[in-house]
């Protein structure tokens, strides 16, 4: 439920309570009877507001829970993707290292051959 919907419902309930209160005050009843009606209407309105509050609270908790699950899922997916990319990078670096080792071994062999030719 959006924040505007909650505000609208609260405004309607408040307006209904005020309207009922004014209606009771202008009714041609004795003071005791009028106070009893006001008290009953106030309790009824309080119950309605509490009911709406619990409903809104439950909906917000559900949305928060869903948002948390979605966030955790996306985080896990992102971490998994990053792990695969890190593995790819490591494999590429290991391949480069092997290539460099092979070139180094060839250069050392060539250098040894040059030194051997010059000493002969």
TrEMBL record:
One Pfam family of this chain: YtxH
Top-rank lineage group of the source organism: Bacteria
Coiled-coil blocks: 90-117
Alphabetical UniProt keywords: Coiled coil, Membrane, Transmembrane, Transmembrane helix
InterPro entries: Desiccation-related_membrane, YtxH
Transmembrane spans: 6-27
Presence of the UniProt keyword Coiled coil in the record: yes
Protein's UniProt name: YtxH domain-containing protein
Organism: Sinomicrobium pectinilyticum
């Amino acid at each position: 439920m959006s924040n505007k919907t909650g505000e609208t419902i609260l405004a309607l309930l408040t307006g209904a309570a005020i309207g009922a209160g004014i209606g009771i005050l202008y009714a041609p009843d004795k003071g005791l009877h009028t106070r009893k009606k006001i008290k009953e209407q106030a309790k009824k309105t309080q119950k309605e507001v509490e009911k709406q509050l619990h409903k809104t609270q439950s909906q917000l908790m559900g949305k928060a829970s869903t948002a948390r699950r979605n966030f955790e899922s996306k985080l896990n997916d992102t971490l998994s993707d990053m792990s695969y990319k890190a593995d790819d990078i490591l494999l590429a670096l290991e391949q480069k290292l092997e290539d460099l080792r092979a070139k180094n071994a060839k250069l050392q062999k060539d250098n040894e051959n040059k030194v051997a030719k010059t000493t002969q």
